[in-house]
Amino acid sequence: MMIHFILNGEETEIEAPDRRVVDLLREDMGLTGTKESCGMGECGACTILVDGVSRLSCLMLAAQLEGRSITTIEGLGSKEALHPVQEAFVEQGAVQCGFCIPGMVLASVNLLGENPAPTREEIRKGLAGNLCRCTGYQKIVDAVESAASHLQGKDTP
Amino acid sequence: MDTIHDDPYLTKVRGWDGRASGVPEIGTSFPRADAWAKVTGTEKYAADYYGSDLVWAGAKRAGLPHARVKAIHAEAARRMPGVLTVLTHADVKGTNRQGVVRKDQPVLVETLVRHAGDAVALILAEDRETLKRALEEVVLDLEPLPGVFDPEEALKPHAPILHEDHSTGNLLLKADLETGEGMGAFSACDVEVEGDFQTPWQEHAYLETELGWSRVEPDRTLVIVASTQTPFRDRSEVTEALGLDIQKVRVVAPFPGGAFGGKDGITVQTLLGLAALHAGGRPVKMVWDREESFVAGTKRHPARFHYRLGATKDGVLKALQVRMVLDTGPYDHLGGVVMTLALEHAGGPYRIPNTSLSARCVYTNNPIGGAFRAFGVAQAAGGMEQMMDLLARRLDMDPVEIRLRNVLRKGDRTPIGVTLQHSIGMEECLTALRSHPLYLEREKWKAEAGPFKRRGVGAAALMHAIGYGPVVPDVANAKLRLTREGRIRVYSGVVDMGQGNAATCFQIAGSILSQPPDAFELVLPDTERTLPSGSAAASRCTYTFGNALIGACEALKQRLLEKAADLLMAGSAAEMALAPGKVHHLVSGREIPLAGLASFMAESEKTITHRFRAPTAPDRIAVSEEVRIHGLGHAVFSYAAHLACVEVDELTGAVDVRHYLSISDCGRVINPQAYEQQIQGGVAQGLGYALMEDFQVRDGQVETRDLATYILPTAMDVPDMDVEAVQTHETTGPFGLKGVGEIGTSGPVPAIANAVADAVGVRLPCWPLTAERVLEAMAPSSPETRSAERRTRSKSRVHS
């Protein structure tokens, strides 16, 4: 079965393999920015955006991509032109080992899409599905707060 | 020559990814150079190595905790389409042994299974699905043996023996140490308290599990790319275990996706090496899934402590007795070293003139105990710092005051007898804590608890040794090279598993050489390219490698100034100064770009190396040479005072940490942002250990095998932390720095346990303090927990 979807802004047509989206992305398409950590939907490392909403690519089959628009971390911003959320993660020191970060950044983008001016508590709630073992979350919350201000055109606190 | 450009395995980090910026200053926050690639998903972890014609390798694990292998039936699996081969110990041409200190762990089991996670066979398959099916097709014919799952049972005469060749049976290592009058000093104490504590396993639960990639190159070199903290030691272990020539083994260490001690030593490396030797030059990938990581990976050692602490009626500590038993599981791994560090820290950061300390590390058929951030100290501090609160309560003294009365100062001896000659900010940390608003206003805060909530505040004082101790050389070797483009390449020999030491290299080198981050590139640890600098462990990375790097930078600076002086016909190097991208002649104003300078330098002149060996303590501690080798007696320590403010739900027993304060003396802070990262992350792991990470093992079988049953702290569980620094200047440290990687992890257990006791009057003899345990302990009808609490109390007695 051929499936059609938009991957990071580009029309994509492939023969849908009988595999999970995380495998399709990482192994067939070489998009290794999406990470796998628990393989059962507990950690959020494999988060991608499907039609702008965060989804776990370890729990999705390739065929479910039909007609969707997918954003992986590779499609968000480049090193030369970071997305404001990525910029904030760098500046605020939210990155340590970095393995949770692609998923955490995309979950944050989703969160700010739904709630452009979240409180720290709302940020914590919004990111509760994404585990980080390095940071203790504080600087991630700082980063999302800072990105929210930036996106709303305010000065970064 | 600069052959580096053609090397497919090289991981190079550009300073700030090539963005222009100023020359970094020491002591100023500085975004990490590795962050750009990590936020854009372009950082290539070991997990991200594939390659065409990839072979998948996987281990068939024993499944039983103790058994004799009668037969391995692999014929059916070997015949499956897509299976390349099934390997057993008979295919291993070397010693088939791995281990950091005692090499007691087989790569593939020969005849005796010692824990359920032992690897018995190794399967190579064309794809993951075939591999998974083939793993089920391999049938192990095992004769179950009686297992031993309790470290104290394991020491009894008729216990099953795990290692027949070990002269002391299941006793891996023991240490007994007395200072002053030892136990005799208790008779002169006015008051004493006793307590027993049982500590749990803790799972590292890094987001990136144990994994790697390997291939035998056309020139017969075996290349292993692994998520590891120890590439150089790995190379030696792989060489020996598989019977190879060390010159033909290369271990490459990209940034691990978390490690925390769990990748200090062999995980996948020997299996991947063996697989590559049988893959006909094809690349091989091995990924432990979460369950395999939980079952086969190492854990923080569980330990039992008996504490007895004696003092004068004024709260001056006089005598300490500690008996501890650690369960290392079936293999030493780093069990002896963890035990030794627990022993060294068992008395906390206090002057205690008379001590009697004993420790045992014991083999069992449980999961493997190994290195985990705060390495023995997290266990011991969890006990000792609760004893301090018990003593304070017994004497009706303020818990912070009693700590201050006994803190170690320079020139004092630690509870094992090391004379402290280096920087000590313990008293400053506690003094700062005592004047912090969270402490000053604690009674008011506690009184504001809502209905069915009770609040408490608890403190802990901590110390943590830096580096390896007296015998194993604590050495780092830095290498620098001026590239033809005029950039400076730093070859880092010590892994950055997330703690930020790689980025700190840019800050150190940049400030000495007056260059902005984009003038640098950093080569990550690789046995082929960089120089051995020890493990990424022991709070030593920036302390030890940073010192080596400073030496190399100063030598390179001198060489660049001299070369430029010669070229510009200046009077001497003293007339020259480095500036971003160039060398300036201060007298004439002329300058030469670094790229230009590089073109005038011979290849041999462009490379600088510098070695640093960390200092050791002057005292010889009265323990056996065997114990000393495990690292007893450190010279340099970091210190910290923690404060936890908790709210306990009377209806559910749930403990909510509302505020957390950490004030540490880790010497001078080079990068405040990186310092906060280390403390915050360390505290979060300690908070998980204190409250929710409940690793369950029954009869040697892991019962918590996923992240649905083993609960990690989420963003909802960790509060915003107040992280402060008391910056002493450690004269032996780079710019005055001491290690910060581990100390944060030891505080939450005792600080939170003390806060819970303050809130609801319940002190448990174990942790994590799950809601269920706290609720049960709070219930007046609970016989089990009340007897545990009574046990702690009844042994406390007041003399005179």
3D architecture notes:
The complex is a heterodimer of chains A (157) and B (800). With 157 residues, chain A is an alpha+beta fold. Chain A folds into two domains: 2-75, Ubiquitin-like (UB roll) (Roll); 84-151, DNA polymerase, domain 1. Chain A is built from five helices and five strands; from the N terminus they run E-E-H-E-E-E-H-H-H-H. Chain A has helices at residues 21-28, 84-91, 101-114, 120-126, 138-151, and strands at 2-7, 10-15, 47-50, 53-56, 69-71. A five-stranded mixed beta sheet of chain A has the order 2-1-5-3-4, with helices on one face. In chain A, strand 3 and strand 4 form a beta hairpin. In chain A, helix 2 (84-91) crosses helix 5. Chain A is globular and about 45 Å long. Chain B has 800 residues and is of the alpha+beta class. Chain B folds into three domains: 3-43 and 475-613, Aldehyde Oxidoreductase, domain 4; 48-145 and 210-287, Alpha-Beta Complex (Aldehyde Oxidoreductase, domain 3), CATH 3.90.1170; 299-469 and 620-798, 2-Layer Sandwich (Aldehyde Oxidoreductase, domain 4). Helices cover 27% and strands 25% of the residues of chain B. In chain B, strands 4-8-2-16-13-14-15 form a seven-stranded mixed beta sheet, with helices on both faces. In chain B, helix 5 (231-242) crosses helix 6. Classes of the chains: A alpha+beta (157), B alpha+beta (800). At the A-B interface, helix 2, helix 3, helix 4 and helix 5 of A face helix 1 and helix 18 of B.
Please give a handful of descriptors for the protein shown:
heterodimer; A: 157 residues; alpha+beta; Ubiquitin-like (UB roll); DNA polymerase, domain 1; 2 domains; 5-stranded mixed sheet; 5 helices; 5 strands; 32% helix; 15% strand; B: 800 residues; Aldehyde Oxidoreductase, domain 4; Aldehyde Oxidoreductase, domain 3; 7-stranded mixed sheet; 6-stranded mixed sheet; 27% helix; globular; disordered C terminus
